[in-house]
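Escalated from tier 1: calcium ion holo job.
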Amino acid sequence: MPLKNKPRKRGLKLAVTLLSGLLPIALGVVILYMQAERALVQNAQETAEEAIRQFELMLDNTAQAARELLPLAGQSCLDVKLALREQVTRRPFVRSTNLMWDDTIYCSSLFGDYHEKVSSGDYAGGRLLLMRGNPVTPDTALLIYRLEDGKRGALSTLDGYHLSNVLRLIGRQTLLVLQVGNNSLTADGHFHEGALPDFPVAQSMLKSSRYDFSVAAGFPEGETWRYMSSEYPPLFSLLIFFGVISGAIGHVLQKRSTSPTYEMQRALEAAEFVPYFQAVVHGDSKKVSGVEVLMRWNHPKEGLVRPDLFIPFAEHSGLIVPMTRSLMQQTAALLAPLSSSFDEPFHIGINITASHCQNLELVKDCREFLHAFAPGSIHLVLELTERELIEPTAITHQLFEQLHELGVMIAIDDFGTGHSSLGYLRQFNVDFLKIDQSFVAMIGVDTLTSHILDSIIQLAGKLDLAMVAEGVETQAQSDYLTAHNVNFQQGYLYGRPMPGAEFISALSDH
Ligand code: C2E
Ligand code: CA
Ligand code: CA
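Tier 2 regenerated the structure:
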């Protein structure tokens, strides 16, 4: 069946709907993830810059102490001890000061006279050394600033407590590490020797332009998702909203593309609806008097489809009107070239429905059809099934009047199966009655049905209407109908519906 949704496709449809909903969400999440990563990198860099600024300020303060003490180096410790202590008291970040001579500490603010060799190679750039602690506070890191001038030298010490405080306060969510030479200090105040492991997220490393230290900043594992969940909830809602909209659009588009109307619209544009032709013969001579045009759907996958499987859909969607127009155009193109060879007006029967009777478009289609043939060479017969009654309105009145003026004839199809009254027959100016094949099939089989058939034949005679018997399959049926003066016959006995080329060659053989 070309117009039924196949169950095996349902899973695929659901998958496509889900995909069209999830794809924009997934894409949005990827974009937000990249955006969050960028934001974190920027955040880490700004934090590192801020930490560097703070450390430089603190080092300025510490270096100032060393600068002021340097000229005193070489003097006796007893004379300069107070000056050393004064710097410690005056400068907020300075914890201790020392004087050196020839790379040897000889005076300390803390101990007074002192003796310790200093190796300038331990100092980054000869200036800075980060230490784990000193004998007084072994667990508190120290940053030592060294200044020298010839044999003179001064050291001022910055308390690691201030440094780790800065790392903690500025860092907050960001992990910060102060790195001096090979040593580093983390926000928890811990001293580390050697290289620190990398930060998993948004790692950046900034160097101070004024002192020999750098600050590494970054975030722990999973920070990007944490950042997204705290910063982007409104965007997530928006994404879900777009996902739902996109899923719904995907669903509707699929539904549309598999809907019978869409499928038939496609078939119409692809000219898949083609005419088949079945001969109608004279009741007495059995000579071909005309043809009934029957629609077939030449479906690319399903093959030739019978009309009763798709005509109801075509009627429902209103596509039957353009489909019939296409059928009439194809019929005219096939049969018009033969029209000059017809000895008497050739009947061409076209099936129409109630949808055709809602406006006057049919008149134009019939006029064009008739114009294609040699004048007077054909009789166009519109077959209107009795199964669906047409409401008489001003439009139908006008329509049938104009059709009549054009010389178009009307046949009531499937006569005997519906309930058309005599008034109905008169209203539409009927020319033919097509006796339904169910009555023909009962000839010689069911006497009651044969009585009905006889009454129909009598009624048609009284109303002076020509008759066509449909579905004539046997010689007995044919003889019975001929004996009862039925004007025309149609059925497999005389020929099945066939494609145009085949019909034309059968006609010329005749
Ligand atoms: P219908 O108008 O009553 O057409 C006669 C149907 O009987 C055709 O079926 C024809 O193939 C079949 N038939 C002819 N001779 C015999 C016979 O000796 N024995 C039997 N058993 N059947 C015979 P088909 O072509 O399948 O069409 C079925 C129906 O579809 C038509 O019934 C008509 O109502 C509709 N139809 C066909 N083409 C069109 C069309 O272009 N427009 C509209 N609106 N309806 C159409
Ligand atoms: Ca018919
Ligand atoms: Ca019929």
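The mean pLDDT is 91.
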